[in-house]
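Appendix B, example 12.
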Amino acid sequence: MDTVAGSLARIYRNLWKHTGIPEIYETKRIHDRSNDFLECMCEVIKDLNHKAIQDGMVYAAVLRAVERGIPEFVTRVCKENRELVRSTNELGRSIFHYAIECRQEKVYSLIYGHDMRSAISTITDHSNNNMLHMAAFLSPFSQLHKIPSAAMQMQRELQWFKEVENIVAPKARELVNWTDHMTPRELFTKTHSKLLKDGESWMKETATSFTVVGALIVTLMFATAFTVPGGYNQDTGLPIFIDERLFMVFIISDATSLFSATTSSLMFLGILTSRYAEDDFLKLLPTKMIIGLFTLFFSITTMMIAFCAALLLILQEKPWTAIPIILLSCVPVTLFAAIKIPLLVHMIASTYGRGIFNNKVDKWL
């Protein structure tokens, strides 16, 4: 009896563990304790002066929160003591400079809710680097590796640079730092030269591969349009199955696949012949890749539809033999979708989505 009870208890514990409820409870407990600790910390720091903040561990904790992208912590402690916003680290960089350097968009976006945004954007560090110089440096590897390809990484870097460029004063865009003696744009070109080459290589390799696929589909669909299933009537010269609905499905799918593959190949050829300037990675090249990938996927899908329609026309008397083959024809479409659709979705979201920055942050300070 004890053995049975022990077995049931183990089964219950395993089931309880796999529900995920213990992890949720532990996360909630840690969150509550963190809030309690934050409240105690705010009580201590609210009366500290600028020197005490700089010399103590408070500012180090804020910088750690910036580095890890925790805007709730930053806003809470900065509300208690405004000196934290004006404070700088050992390099003379504010929390917003550091947020740009670490590529933490949630913390950076807090600048839109600050009433001294213009003044903050003019701050320079000990090397005369302003906020735009921070955006010109290459992202930390921990942030870059989250983005799937070199071309998309270059796009994200450009998005950061353009975003910061919009909030700094026009004269700040021409400010020369003391370390490299460069303006922000010159520094961006220098630090991103390797990433630019990697993005160009990725674009060319991807476009070359898909151009070959698109050309094969064009050749196949063009030939198929004149070798219709069932052949031609010797008396009229018209296709034998011309009055069948499936034949119209076959012809429309074949033509659609041909036109889509042609469009796809032209888009990929356009990528191969592009000049690959820095700003091309922001919109132009991703747009061509999006159109090329979408039309290629559509072409493969309609090619499979044409194949299935032709098979059903030929095997009308034995449709049961066509069903397994039709099911197998879904495999290449599914595989292509599984491999490339996530990339396509990421490109669309990154190029035409709402973006990673939130310029509608409520006023918090």
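DSSP finds 17 helices and no strands in the chain. The radius of gyration is 30 Å.
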